[in-house]
């Protein structure tokens, strides 16, 4: 595993470089308030959002050639599934996870697709310091069979561990291509950028783990405020559109 449990300076620098050189990579394919709003059938929503953004910029509507089939979910932990630096799942999050794993129509059903969901965190699973978090998360989710990704030795944290995550799903026969994966998280600079580097789709949980006005919701920190402002600026003022995954249009 990576040496320092807390340092992700290279990730921050990469986010800044991406923003300067490829700003559209900072934008998610789909924005939802919280994880509880995640559609069960994601594909149509991903391309619909891309199409809407493109149509707003062009007089001639664009129609995606096909709809992605999402077979796997990469889920962030902090401020997506749990309040930051905790392993406490709000009841509504557990209800949503249970639905995704037990609904007969869900592509992530644990019976038909047992390895479809993987938690990838820059805390739990990233360093031995957080082994107690891994144990807590996997114990609570044992009935849903949702594991935490262990960062391989010598591999860096998000957004640089995408290849290893794709490999994890491929080895278990879940996906054949990265564009069958959706990365869901609250951070543009890690979760969304990692999805782009992987060749996958991205879903941004804009409000984090709690809805606006919900008890327990805290104010955004400086980086979170910056990301919200940057996303709006790129989309509304610069007219940027989230690019489809590499190879998707081929």
From TrEMBL:
UniProt-recorded name of the protein: Phosphatidylglycerophosphatase GEP4, mitochondrial
GO molecular function, one term: phosphatidylglycerophosphatase activity
Superkingdom classification of source: Eukaryota
SUPFAM superfamilies: HAD-like
Gene3D superfamilies per the UniProt record, alphabetical: HAD superfamily/HAD-like (3.40.50.1000)
Segments passing through the bilayer: none
InterPro entries registered for this protein in UniProt: HAD-like_sf, HAD_sf, PGP_Pase
Signal sequence bounds: none
């Amino acid at each position: 595993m990576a040496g320092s449990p807390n340092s992700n300076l290279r990730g921050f620098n990469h986010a800044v470089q991406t923003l300067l050189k490829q700003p559209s990579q900072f934008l998610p394919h789909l924005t939802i308030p919280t994880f509880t709003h995640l559609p069960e059938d994601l594909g149509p929503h991903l391309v619909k959002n891309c199409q809407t953004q493109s149509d707003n910029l062009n007089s001639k509507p664009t129609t995606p050639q096909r709809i992605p089939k999402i077979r796997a979910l990469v889920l962030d932990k902090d401020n997506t599934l749990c309040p930051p630096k905790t392993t406490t799942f709000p009841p509504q999050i557990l209800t949503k996870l249970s639905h995704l794993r037990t609904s007969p129509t869900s592509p992530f059903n644990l019976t038909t697709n047992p390895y479809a969901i993987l938690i990838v965190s820059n805390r739990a699973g990233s360093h031995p310091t957080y082994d107690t978090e891994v144990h807590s998360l996997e114990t609570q989710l044992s009935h849903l069979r949702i594991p935490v990704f262990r960062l391989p030795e010598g591999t860096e944290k998000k957004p640089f561990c995408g290849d290893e995550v794709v490999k994890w799903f491929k080895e278990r026969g879940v996906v054949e291509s990265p564009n069958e994966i959706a990365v869901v998280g609250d951070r543009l600079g890690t979760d969304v950028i990692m999805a782009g580097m992987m060749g996958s789709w991205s879903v941004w949980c804009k409000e984090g783990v709690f809805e606006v006005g919900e008890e327990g919701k805290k104010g955004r920190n400086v980086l979170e405020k910056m990301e919200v402002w940057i996303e709006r600026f790129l989309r509304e003022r610069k007219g940027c559109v989230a690019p489809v995954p590499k190879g998707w249009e081929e």
